[in-house]
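Changelog-adjacent note: as of this version, every example in the card shows the full chain rather than a window. The one below runs 254 residues end to end.
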Amino acid sequence: MTTVLIVTDQALQRLGLRMFLEAQPDLTVVGEATDCDQAVRAADALRPDLVLLDIDRPDVDRVRAIRRITRPEHRPGVPRADRAGGLPPRVLVLTPFDTDEYSYAALRAGAGGLLPKDALPGELTAAIHLVALGGSVLSPRLTRALVDVVREQRPAAAPERRHKLSQLTEREREVLTALASGWSNTEIAKRLCIAPTTVKTHISSILTKIGVRARVQAVVFAYETGLVRPPWHQQPRPHETDFSDHPRGGFQST
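Full-length structure tokens:
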């Protein structure tokens, strides 16, 4: 059973999301929050598997809340969660399509996935399960929007990020490059002539070395450090569904 905390300041949306999610046989809503401070406190107290956070407008407080929820170890006085593995909740962000820069900031803050607010019900439930299990979700159109943001900003890699990149082996760089280019685990395995289980091992090592929890954040890292360059004159390849990472499948994921 996957437990969910709903965060939105719109009462009707909270009610609608609760009714829909509680109608699913394998989802349980453990609480609601109307603002960022409530969301952080509720995440600490209720320890859900996933926080479903609505971003309906550009708001740095929401981005800050994502960082506080996903990285409680950086907040003094916060006890380590006693959930399995002692991990903080994952965060799935519902975002309008026109807040590209804030979507980008949400990923950097630690969000495990971004879902357009007009996503279909089945896409929402699949994304919740996938992100809660440690996977990542990024729809093809949001992928394009975020690549455009990287194209505009061209952020320079900080020395710390360059150092983390230097810690990767040559094979890990190849896997990260393929991952950031939109390849699924199965495709990476075929491309590099290695076993899919080996791909997963490499990805796990990459996440540990660069200090992130989700594949989508590794993609951001690859762009920010210049390991992967945005395609200036061609359409980016949409991210494929990787059914090997999630038994339920059914949604586009990184």
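Structural remarks: The mean pLDDT is 79.
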